[in-house]
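User: Predict the structure for this protein chain, please.
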Amino acid sequence: MSHTAHIPSHRKPRQSASKSALRAGVAGGVLSTIAVAGAAGPAQAEPVTQTIEMPTITSGFSTAVAASAQATQQVALDLETQAHEDAAAEKAAKTAKKAHAEAVRKAEAEKKAEAAAKAKAEAEAKAQAEERAQRASRTAERTTLSASSGSSNSSGSSASAPSSSSSNVSGSAASIVAFAKAQVGDAYVPGGTGPNSWDCSGLVQAAYRTAGIDLPRVSQAQSTAGTQVSLNSLQPGDILYWGGAGSAYHVAIYIGGGQFVGAQNSSTGTVQRSMDYDRPTGAVRVL
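Assistant: Here is the predicted structure, written as structure tokens:
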């Protein structure tokens, strides 16, 4: 380690010549000013006032800006109002279109309903007229049958010779066949015994009653009420049955010509049919 210590210098750095001259000039100027002020005496110096002009917004420009803002706001309000009006008009148009379609649909439905009601009323009126005509015809035929039956019974006549045609039948058989044919078109009602609705055995019993013959009420008993005969040797007035003799479930009256009259069911009512329509099981002759 060196015995000589390094001691930092406290000397100020030298100023440049230009800085020194500037300082000298400033100092001289200040001294000169003070000297002049002292020579002038106690007179007080006037303050120096400097006015800076700033740009101002003219009143016309401000009015224009305000008018422009107001116009912009009005345009926005007008657009919003127009949008609401357009939406309301579109909604009203849709509602009107829907209401029109619904009105058209209802009108068409009412028109169809009126047409159906009119057609139904006409059909019912026609059916009622036909029914009245049929009842009147059957009433006339029954009156005639009753008169002829009474005349036949009073003279003590019996059944005529067998015949395959109902037009050639006379006596009791003719009375039975004519009565049965007069009921064609009547309704089928279970347990019906007339005068305008029948079940199968009720019709057979009523037909035989016109000839003065009382038959059992039900089909099982009617199927054994007389002599069993072949289906190939039938005569008008014979009783046809379906099922076994003594256990028949349906009966009808043979009217000749391969046909029968019977109260069939609630769908067909009392009908005249060919035996081929529903072939019977057997037959019984009561006359």
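The chain has two domains: 68-157, 166-285.
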